[in-house]
Amino acid sequence: MIDRYFKLGENQTTVKQEVLGGLTTFLTMAYIVVVNPQILAQAGMPVEGVVFATCLSAAVATLVMGLYANYPIALAPGMSLNAYFTYSVCLGMHIPWRTALGVVFLSGVLFLVLTVTRVREQIVNGMPDCLKHATATGIGFFIAFVGLRNAKLVVANAATFVGLGSFADHEVQTACFGLALTLVLMARKVNGAILIGIFGTTLVGMLRGISKWPSAIVSMPHPSATFLQLDLHSAIHLGFLEILFAFLFVDLFDNVGTLVGVCEQGGFIKDGKIPRVGRALVADAVGTIFGSVAGTSTVTSYIESVAGIAVGARTGLSNMVVAALFLMAMFCSPLAAAIPGYATAPALVLVGALMTQSIAHINWGEFSEAAPAFITIVAMPLTFSIATGLSLGLISYTVAKAAAGKLREINALVWILTGLFILRYVYLAAG
Known about the structure:
By secondary structure, this protein is mainly α.
């Protein structure tokens, strides 16, 4: 029954591969259980309630993706969106967090409307092939950069913006051990290499006293602090168009970029299109609506899903594992919190290396495709935003094709998106 529903044979995978992939994906994104409450707490939200909301919304959205779309792409509250929620909306604009949750709910409803009307599906499938390949590659560089930063191998530098971290730092040493261990295991094609690397690095860090052992195994969730606390009445009467547009824009194009990149890596794109993309896009809309009700910011697809794909996940069965682990994390948050960032850093770096394979599919001999692809690739890690990289890539694609006299290669959707992106940057400059 499992084989028939998830089409394991057709996707050349097994239950073992899916379970291993799901566990790997969860471990690489388990940090959200700890980090999301820490960020939203600065907006005045109760930490215990946000832990519950984070785990529940991630589980629900991930289940929808797995059961409805049959893709191994996990979802959870987005990092850039929780920062915008806290620092720009609640602290910058002095909007109460309950009202902000109301705006998130409305944005989720709009996501769902755009999905049902197939607007979002057309955006995904209307992207030029060169930008699809570039997006996968750019995300590879992006998550590798995140991994290097989490390992403290790359640090801020006043003179050069970034620089090499200190090898006297015990976390850097342990991360390097984890990177070497995972690299050797992957080179030797050991099953579960990434997972073993994460566990091994975590254990070494604990034995060295860098990280603390779990303080407890079980802790009860506290949903009432944030559940059903959104204030829709105030959100509707608030002049919230700017906020709503920001939530829509960042989630829409972060999610589109992530979907394209992950599907490219997993080999899911057929004839330049993502099968069942409409179903996949329903997941983050449902997750955002559910998350706002439970008490967290916008839910989106996670690029860490490529870690699970790298170890063999190919269907939504792996999402069942991720969702179950998120539900367990609701009760076992101390265990999830025990996995430090430097332990998952090696996995992100090496998965990033795997994702750069897509760069070979870009036609580097055609400048009108090579230049936009290059801009997309470099902009993602350098601006620390998938959405920004994709927007700059689309604008440069339109300019390059128009300059080369190849207007027929620019479809109507690309023209529209280019205009919207330019207007957005004009608006940001005016603000």
